[in-house]
Protein 1
Amino acid sequence: MRIAVIDNGGGNVASVRFALERLGVRPVLTTDAGTIEGAERVILPGVGAAADAMQRLAASGLDRLIPTLRQPVLGICLGMQLLFEASEEGATDCLGILKGVARRIPDGPGRPVPHMGWNRLEPTRASALLAGIEPGAYAYFVHSFALPIGADTLASSDYGGPFTAVAARGNFHGVQWHPERSAAAGARLLANFLSLDT
């Protein structure tokens, strides 16, 4: 299976690659449009700031390419946020594939931002992407911005209020958490993504 991992400067790219290799696939790390278009699966990882990430995508023309892709696409962490319309972080316009705006998580006593650590996943509707992942399963998060619950939400989590933990629209999927760092639940989600119908 040809898997393209978009090299968008995120520090989690290597761990995503290793997680996929543990599942028996060897992804290609790339910004080449032809390689991405020809892949059977595309993964958009990301950490850092939305504005910087969108600038890197625009510089390689991938901001125009990604919304046209027809194969299954998975955005991870910031990569998921980039699939949505915008982010309050730097008032950044994103790819506009899914509906919603990423907003800063409110901090509070005992609830520092960024939200960093293990938190529970609560599915909101059935999905092949979440097959075999039990309600309440733990996933590993590192983020300061999040999407509210919306029409594209497949699972939520809670940190000072509910937010979208997994989302999908058509062939585009996103997870706010890091499956490559989330033990059994993360491995299962990646395996599910690899086996999605095209």
Protein 2
Amino acid sequence: MQYIYIIILCITSYLLGSIPSGLILGKIFRNIDIREHGSGNTGASNALRVLGAKLGFFTFVFDFLKGMAVMLFLWAFKLEQFYRLGAFNTEILYGALAVVGHAFPIYLNFKGGKAAATTAGVIFFIEPIVFLACILTFTLTFLKNRIVSIASLITAGVCLLLMISRQLLYSLFPDFLFFGFTDKSLQTYALEALVIVILVLIILIRHISNLKKLGEGLELPFRKKKKNR
């Protein structure tokens, strides 16, 4: 029976991840289908460009929360039997399925967002200190060139590097252990690193069109709106 519930939770995480936050907010508040504007995807960056700062922000928040929703539910209600399997803590698998749902949503013929915001939600729950490093990386990169795709890809690379090397980093800087879930086995560290590799690959695949535009000089940066005097 335990594994039946695990399968149900996996499906639930994918279906939650598939909810197109940007599309829904655009339809409700602007009567706009954001798939017909900007980059055509339903993620937070296109919502920001098409719908404006406020709705773009809420799109990011909803997409972010999708990544951690099932994991947070299991943790809050102490349902460890559904993610502690032997030496493995498999929470991240639920988050990964939410990312898959966001990037390839069943509701929209498997054409969704770029997966960065939902992956950020997963990282925040799994390793908060890595999340903070990623936020700093994204912010500094974006402020320099104001191109979301570049900032997202560089941040994904930094995240991958930190997640793979974090056990070594924690051994060198043990004080940082307080900020993460430290009761992890070697098997769990390995599983989480492998899942992050897959998630970064998904982010890279979803950004192929952006890379082509960058190569052609067509990827436009966000510009500050000039104030009317």
